[in-house]
Design goal:
Layout lengths: L7 H6 L2 H14 L6 H14 L3 E5 L2 H14 L8 E5 L4 H9 L3 E5 L10 H7 L4 E4 L11 H11 L2 E5 L20 E5 L13 E5 L2 H10 L4 E3 L2 E2 L10 H10 L3 H18 L21 E4 L3 H10 L27 H9 E4 L7 H12 L2
Parallel strand pairs: 2-3, 2-4, 4-5, 5-6
Antiparallel strand pairs: 1-7, 6-7, 8-9, 10-11
Helix pairs in contact: 2-9, 3-9, 4-5, 4-8, 10-13
Length: 367
């Protein structure tokens, strides 16, 4: 049996007729930038996340950048301020901070949770740090209750990188995107809620921030050809908003299926050579990725390939080891570096069949 790492065609075929209808209506409308489908999605996603405002933008990285730029415009951040961010993240998180003229302060992570080490986070906080940017990596919420407490004690902004955590919920039923002061989402096609191209959004309860970002995403303008500030061109495409609106009502059931598969992997794979992720069975993890650790990654991946089980590495090189960021102050990040040498992502998708999951489990058991 062959099991793809992720079959995006199968994921989206479920909605093909609705997509075609939406596309026909989009063409017929003659209105291809902004417009009703975008407003409808922004309202629906705000309701879903439990926030007052959603602002659709061009990508997840733009969402992070525009939050930071919005806070700069409001005087809450200034060029040169520092942002505490996990060392174990995709480079886009760091690039957004760098491109905003801010300084990333890398924080070590927990080995099995992959998110902030709270003890290390506390150590790096100093008067130069003005914001914390937790990353809900692989779909698992960061320890937001403790992070928000630290932020309150130190008068810090908290900006969630929720690019991989659509629909993840804490023990009180609060969703990713509503746990900090603002949050950035990516709707890259492989995400739990994925568009058919690049797309992103910002969520917040802060009306002033939302209004600032709405202007910034549209050339710094709220009135056509009148530009109050230096802005960007970063608008969520109308057709992508229409597609996302179709998929949003299915997000919870898709996440539930991911959680079912994740629990099966954890409970039924008892191979000491494979280190499983920590998961309690709660809604705090939506398994955008199912990531394990192995000591001999090359041999493990060759074994999976020989058995036709798809796999990938997220991510082979940590940001502080990238040639683009030689100036990052890394201090000591042994856990992050170990993780990047050992992680392997296994098949995870809401359209995986029982037979495919059975097969992956058997292959893992026999390694």
């Amino acid at each position: 049996m062959k099991v793809d790492f992720l079959n995006l065609k199968a994921v989206n075929q479920r909605f093909e007729k609705e997509f075609q209808t939406a596309y026909t209506e989009f063409i017929a409308s003659g209105y291809y930038i902004m417009g009703k489908p975008l407003i409808d999605f922004e309202n629906a996603f705000a309701t879903y996340c439990g926030v007052s405002h959603t602002i659709g933008v061009a990508s997840g990285m733009d969402a992070l950048r525009l939050i930071l730029e919005g806070y700069k415009s409001l005087g809450r951040l200034s060029i040169g301020d520092a942002v505490a961010v996990p060392a174990n993240t995709f480079i886009a998180t760091i690039l957004a901070i760098e491109q905003s003229g801010l300084k990333p302060v890398l924080v070590e992570v927990e080995e099995m949770m992959y998110n902030f080490s709270l003890s290390h986070l506390k150590k790096v906080l100093n008067p130069k740090v003005k914001a914390i940017m937790p990353v809900h990596l692989y779909g698992q919420l960061s320890p937001m209750k403790e992070i928000m407490q630290l932020a309150e004690e130190n008068n810090l902004l908290v900006i969630e990188d929720a690019a991989q955590a659509h629909g993840a919920m804490d023990e009180n039923g609060n969703s990713a995107g509503a746990l900090g002061h603002a949050a950035a989402f990516s709707f890259y096609p492989s995400k739990n809620l994925g568009a058919l191209g690049d797309a992103g959004a910002i969520t917040t309860d802060d009306k002033a921030l939302a209004n600032e970002i709405r202007s910034l995403r549209n050339y710094g303008s709220t009135e056509r050809y009148v530009h109050e500030k230096i802005g960007f061109n970063s608008r969520l495409d109308t057709i992508q908003a229409a597609f996302l609106n179709i998929k949003l009502p299915h997000l919870d059931s898709d996440n539930h299926r991911r959680q079912e598969i994740g629990l099966r992997y954890i409970r039924e794979v008892n191979n000491p050579k494979i280190k499983m992720p920590a998961y309690s069975g709660s809604k705090e993890h939506v398994f955008h990725l199912f990531v394990v650790q192995v000591e001999n990654r090359k041999a493990f991946m060759n074994y999976l390939k020989n058995n036709e089980v798809g796999c990938l590495i997220h991510y082979p090189i940590p940001p502080h080891k990238q040639k683009a960021l030689p100036h990052l102050d890394t201090n000591s990040l042994p856990v992050t570096e170990s993780i990047h040498e050992q992680v392997v992502s296994l098949p995870m998708s809401p359209v995986m069949s029982k037979e495919e999951v059975d097969y992956v489990i058997r292959v893992l058991q026999e390694y």
